[in-house]
Amino acid sequence: MSNPLTITEKIILAHTDLESCSPGDIVSARVDIALGNDITAPIAIREFDTIGVCDVFDNEKIALVPDHFVPNKDIASAKQAKTLREFAKKYNIKYYFESGEVGIEHALLPEQGIVLPGDLVIGADSHTCTYGALGAFSTGVGSTDLAYAMAFGEAWLKIPYSIKVIFDGKPNKWVSGKDLILFLIGKIGVEGANYMALEFSGTTFKYLTMADRFSISNMAIEAGAKSGIFEPDEITEEYVSKRAKRDYTIYKSDPDAQYLKTLKYDTAKINPQVAFPHLPENSVDVKEASAKNIKIDQSVIGSCTNGRIEDLRIAASILKGKKIAKYTRLIVIPATPEIYLMAEKEGLIDIFMNAGGVVSTPTCGPCLGGYMGILADGEKAISSTNRNFKGRMGDITSEVYLANPAVCAASAITGKISSPDEVV
Amino acid sequence: MLLKGKVFKFADNIDTDAIIPARYLNDSDPENLRKHCMEDADPSFASKVNKGDFIAAGVNFGCGSSREHAPIAIKASGVPLVIAKSFARIFYRNSFNIGLLILEADTDSIDSEDVLEVDTDKGEIKNITKNITIYAKPIPKFMAELVSAGGLMEHARKRVKKEGELKK
C-alpha cells in the first residue's frame, strides 16, 4: 500500500517514472502542455535555438499565445509577435493563435479544451496556475524552462507541500471567487504560500461557477503559491466535457493525505474585497474602502483573472441603463473572441458602450501597464486584474485598487470606490 | 567561488515590475534591459551600479511575474549575486536556470554601501564594513549541480550531445 497522496502529488507522480514521491523531492516531469506568450516565448525561442535539437518534442503539446501586446502596440512588440509566428510556422505548432483567434492565454486554453483535468502544465507566465481550477497541476516558470520543455517535453519540479483551504457556506450577494482569494491573500500574505500548493475545497464552491474557480486559482501566485488546485466535481465535468477533444484523468486527494496546514473560513462572513496599493494582501471590506471616499480615474474590467463572460454579465447588470461618472474612464476587455461574441449577442457590449465605456479586443493590455489604458502620474484605477504593485498600470505614482467586476462597475458609475449596493 | 563587492540594499517584496517594468518588455536584449534594471525601486541604480556589486533585500524578492527579463537584467548589470531573506519561487528557479547566484540569508545587518566578501560554496557572508559574518541557507544539491553545469541550457546542450552519442 503506497502512502496517501494529495491531488497535486498524484498528478506530478503520474507524469514521472517514479513509484512514489514526497514533498521536497525534485523530479523531472513530463508536460502535457508547455505555454509561452509574446513576452516570454521570444527568449525561450532564442534559447531553444541554441540547444541543438532539430525539432520540438511534440507540436501538439506547445501553446504559443500572443496576448500581452497584440494587436502589436509598437514596432518592438510587433517583432516579438513575429518571432512567435515564425517559430509556429517552422515547427507547425498546433496551438498558435493569430489576432482574431487569440485571447488571454489563461482564459483561452481552458475554453478551447486545450488544458484538461489531470494535466501537468508549465507556462512561461506566472498566472499559469489558473488551470488548477480544472484539477490540473499547472505552474508558472521562466523562458529557459519553456525552452527546455519545448525540446524535451520535461520540466524539473520540486514536489510542493500542500495547504488545504476550506471555504464553507453560501456566499453573500456580490461575493465572487475574486473576493475569496483576495480575502485569503489578506489573511496569509503575499508570501504566505511561497513554494506551496494551495488546495481549495468546501461547500461554498457548490454555489459558485467555474469562472470563480479560475479567478481563485489564477491568484494563488499572489500568495506566492506554486499552484492552486480544486478537485474536479460535477461543475468541472459540466465545463470540461463539452470542450475536451482528448481523454483526461480525474484525480482526487486521498482522505488521509498530508497537509502542511488546513485553513478554514466561513464564507458568510466575507464581503466583497478591495486590495489597496501596493500589494494584493492589502485587502479590506468594500464598505470600509467606500467610506474612505477614494476618487478613481479609471475602472478596468478584464484580464486572465476576471475577463470571462460571467464577469461581464455581472458588470453589465450593474451598468445597464446607467452612465459612468464624468471624467472617469471605463475599459472593458473580454478575455477571448468567444467571450466577446457572447457578450455581443447578449447585448452586454451595448450596455458598456451606452454607459460611456470602451470595449477592447482581447489583450492583457493595461493589467501589466502594457497599453490600452495606461495611468498618468497620480491617477487611481480600480481594476478586476490581479496585481497592484507600484507602477503596475502606468506611472510610478499611479495607484491600482483590486476588486471584483461588480465593484469595478459600481465604482465607474460613482467615480469613487463603491459597493454595488450603492448603485443598484 | 569567492566574491567581493558593494551592496545595494532593497526592501521587502521587491516585485518583478520594480526590477524591470513591463513598459520595457517589448525587448528582451540583455543590454537594453540592463539600462532599466531596478528602475521603479531605485531610478539611479542602473547609472550607479558597478560590475561585481551585490543586491541585498528583505523577504519575497522577485515576486509577481515570471519574466526571466528580471534576473537577466540583474545579471547584465554585472551583479553576480543577490542575497535576500527569501525569494519568490519563479524568480528563484529562473535565477538558477540562467546562472545568477542567489543566497537566502538574514539580511537585516546588511545596509547599502556595505562591502561584503562572500564564499558562495560555504554560504559565508563576511560584512567587511561592519565586521559581522552571517551564513546563508545551504543551496539544495540539485540546484548547486545546475549552477555548476552552467545553467539549464548548458545542461540541455550536454543532454543533446549525450543522447546523440547514445543513438549512434
Any overview of this molecule?
The complex is a heterodimer of chains A (424) and B (168). Chain A is an alpha/beta fold. Helix content of chain A is 30%, strand content 18%. Chain A is built from 14 helices and 18 strands. Chain B is α/β, with parallel strands linked by helices and 168 residues long. Chain B has helices at residues 16-19, 30-34, 45-48, 69-76, 89-98, 141-148, 152-167; strands at 2-9, 54-57, 81-84, 101-104, 115-119, 124-127, 132-135. Chain B has a 7-stranded mixed β-sheet with strand order 4-3-2-1-5-6-7, covered by helices on one side. Chains A and B meet through helix 2, helix 3 and helix 5 of A and helix 5 and helix 7 of B.
Task: Give the gist of this structure.
Chain A is an alpha/beta fold and 424 residues long. Chain A has 14 helices and 18 strands.
- By oligomeric state, this entry counts as heterodimer
Roughly what is the average pLDDT of chain B, rounded to an integer? Answer: 95
End-to-end separation of chain A:
57 Å
Biggest β-sheet: strands ordered side by side in the sheet of chain B: 4-3-2-1-5-6-7
Helical percentage of chain B = 25-40%
CATH superfamily of the largest domain in chain B: Aconitase, domain 4
CA-atom Rg of chain B in angstroms: 16 Å
CATH architectural designation of the largest domain in chain B: Alpha-Beta Barrel
Estimate the helix proportion of chain A, in percent. 25-40%
Main sheet of chain A, how many strands, which sense, barrel? 5 strands, parallel
